[in-house]
Specification:
Thioredoxin-like_sf; 19% strand; alpha+beta; SCO1/SenC; Glutaredoxin; two-stranded antiparallel ribbon
Length: 206
């Protein structure tokens, strides 16, 4: 009899724990207000992104808090890039224009991974030519590496090619929200209209 009662008690406890876990699981799932907007999965994604300290076109040292004041599309590239970077950055700029037409304000951000050539003035001219709202950032090699590491981007300069060397780099664009930090990333094959749709979803659910 005691054994039956003990087993019954264990079953009650297990049932209680199972219900509790289900509630916690549902609560955690519901706590992600952007779940319906996300189309990307990153291992440890919650840890991607974060604080950075770089130099803007005016030669001023700025932090992520200074730069990310509204939904922002962050891209790591370099101004001497012959084709990929201009196309990717233009895509982001067109998405920002599409969002503006929908009444949503967003900022395109360009972070150079070629600090040896991309001075604040060079980055500033590049950003201004791509979009009037674009923020161009550079910095010391250490500052650039820290920002790149935060977003887990890859870059490697082919310095043995002379002054006109190329830089291998990753080509993702990152959506960063002022209050939430990094929320999603986008591949370069996503067209501007679809990118604008995705950003709008995050804005509508913030």
């Amino acid at each position: 009899m005691r054994r039956v009662m003990a087993i019954g008690a264990v079953l009650v406890v297990l049932a209680f724990l199972a219900v509790s876990l289900m509630l916690v699981y549902r609560s955690d799932g519901d706590s992600d207000k952007y779940a319906q907007c996300k189309n990307s999965a990153v291992a440890g994604g919650a840890e991607l992104g974060g604080p950075f300290e770089l130099v803007n076109a005016q030669g001023q040292t700025v932090t992520d808090a200074d730069v990310i004041t509204e939904p922002s599309l962050v891209y790591f590239g370099y101004t001497f890039c012959p084709d990929v970077c201009p196309l990717d950055v233009d895509r982001n700029a067109r998405a920002v224009d599409e969002l503006e037409a929908r009444g949503i304000s967003a900022t395109p951000v360009f972070i150079s991974v070629d600090p040896a050539r991309d001075t604040p003035e060079v980055v500033g001219d590049f950003a201004a030519n791509m979009h009037p709202k674009m923020i161009g950032l550079t910095g010391s090699p250490a500052q650039v590496k820290a920002a790149s590491d935060a977003y887990r981007t890859y870059y490697k300069a082919h310095e043995d090619e002379g002054e006109d060397y190329l830089v291998d780099h990753s080509t993702f664009s990152y959506l960063v929200m002022p209050e939430d930090g990094f929320v999603d990333f986008f591949r370069r094959d996503v067209p501007p209209e679809q990118l604008a749709d995705k950003v709008a979803c995050f804005v509508d659910n913030q």
